[in-house]
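User: Structure please.
Assistant: Input sequence and predicted structure:
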Amino acid sequence: MASQTPTVTPADNFDKDNDAQALRKAMKGMGTDEKEIIEVLSNRSNGQRQEIRVQYKTAFGRDLIDDLKSELRGDFENVILGLMDPPALFDARCLKNAMKGAGTDEKVLVEILCTRTNDQIKAIKAAYKTAFKKNLEDALSSETSGTFKRLLVGLSTGARDESTDVDSDKASADAQTLFEAGENKLGTDEDEFQRILVSKSPSHIKAVVDAYSGVSDRSLEDAVKSELSGNARDAYVSILSFFHRPIVHFADLLNSAMKGLGTDEDRLIRVIVSRSEVDLGAIKAAYAVKYGKPLGEAIKSECGGDFRNVLMALVR
């Protein structure tokens, strides 16, 4: 959907044995060379990191992840461990963490499930099942309820239409259906919103958004905000935002993690790690245009120490 503008690409002249040795040296004995860990892992693709992990165990009889966990702490550790997870497992782990313990972090469920392709969702489900011995759908059903639960279950099927063909008549009909189900009705027919916004293709939904302006004085996003509430409203707004302008959507997520008092470090990690090999270069450019300062400058002002350093290395 978005242009492929990664900030992290496979290293040229990759040597897994040299990298494994460098990481072992960085963690051996007293103290830890965090700079060397950043230098190696932020400049290798995820596939190369998996090769390094295997070589590390082969060469030293030690598990690289266990050694990293024993040497690192806090947000810096979370970034490094996130880089070591295959992408589907990283997303699965984020979803698991959002649902463990008392309460559920619904914004994480929305952030991930509303912005992944069918293939990515299927891979996430497989990784979740393997890592946590539970079906993702069952976990979502047990942690959420009502309209929001049905929406997440629908997204977790990974069965959205992904065709790129657009039938303008069908888009206009769906725009009218959403108007009748929301603004033009006492109460809201939430089933129609899910049927269209969860199952139809991104291309079709973009056409529906355009067509909606012909049946209402409001934009479809404003209508959703008015007619729906809570987590379901947030999820539908996220879907509309992502399908309309995916790059800007992620730039907005990064801004939301850093604006106001405090910083949402977990969101920074999720977005930067998950998009670094996809489109973080374009996200960085969109951030600068929309918010008037470089993304790196914002990270420098909000984060410190090795956490800041590894994020800066990934953002470039």
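The two ends are 23 Å apart (CA to CA).
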